[in-house]
Amino acid sequence: MTGPGASAVERLRELLAKATPRPWRHYDEVFRPQFGSGRITEIHTARGKEIVRWSGFDGLPATTSRKRNANAALMVEAVNALPALLDLIENLAAERDAAIAALQEPTTAE
User: Fold this and answer.
1) Is 0.85 surpassed by the pTM of this model?
2) By residue range, what is the domain housing residue 67?
């Protein structure tokens, strides 16, 4: 891919390759009894292994569980959707490049 955004697409693909394999899932449950009362929000692999694990992983107090859950859900959905979005960007860039090349080809007058 060439043009604006090419380095961002490459960087995101590098990060995805290094990160925990997808799909990720959002886990939100009541604390395990041995840890007291409240809720825990985590991000897990498809097999249930914790990727992000602690009750206030985004720095929000436990009382703001809606925002914490929304943040976790956004992270999970963004990571899971990212490969398809990067493919779309690259496909659109290739179509753009082909259209520009076609417009630059000399035409024959009849």
Assistant:
1) no
2) 6-104
